[in-house]
Structure prediction request, 297 residues.
Amino acid sequence: MAVILPIITEFNAKGTQKAIKEFQKLEGASAKAQYAIKKSAVPAAAAVAGLGLALVGATKAAMEDQAEQVQLALALQNVTGATDAQIASQEDMITKMSLASGVADSELRPALASLVRGTKDIEEANKALALAQDISAGSGKDLATVSDALAKAYGGNMKGLAALSPEIKAMIKDGASLEDVMNVLGGSFGGASAAAAATAEGGMKRLGIALAETKESIGAALIPVVEALLPYLIAFGAWAQENTKVFLIVAGAIGGIAVTILALNAAIAKITSVTGLANRSALNTATTPFTIICAAA
Prediction:
């Protein structure tokens, strides 16, 4: 006769549950680490990209400033035979004038060049530029228009000055000399530029000028790097122009590789996600208590 002895026992899950908790901690720590890395990578990438854009912008501003300096230097040399020292002095004067008045050096340089051509004298052109700034600030007319009118007046054409105010127009009509007209303009608009610079708006403009100068200084340090790369970039541009089909094939291949990498990354992420779910499912199954029933014959 067979004797059946039902033996029922419960599995002690304490050790397994402890191990599972440790795995979950590790899983949580990994997830947190990945989350932290992703979150920190976004602003880091943005910062690097922002820095790159800022440096490109600074270099571009410095190159534009350099081109403007070359144009003014050319005018000073051609009209007055200015030396390098005199040109450097004029650049220093423009920087100081710009910071004091809040008028950009990109406006002051062409204005001075125009006045140099009209007066044929650097010292007289500097006086006329100071007056042009006052007239511009007092009348609301842009500096280029005012300086052009003054430059033409030195050449005998005072039609532009007549448009600045009814008083000047009447004087010119009555045959006033250029000196008389300049004295009246100085009396009517004198100090207008300094007064405008002293306002809150003027202060903000001067701050903007100071920041722009800093930006240009940073960019100026990078110009030699750009100049060193230019021959290679120009050569590459010429090659691309002459070999359009080859260039398009290369560009397409690079684009295809990029797409493949993105697809691979997406697939890996998907596999990792599914594997993670499977692991968690297995761990959950392991936590289920079970009963062992033994039969003895």
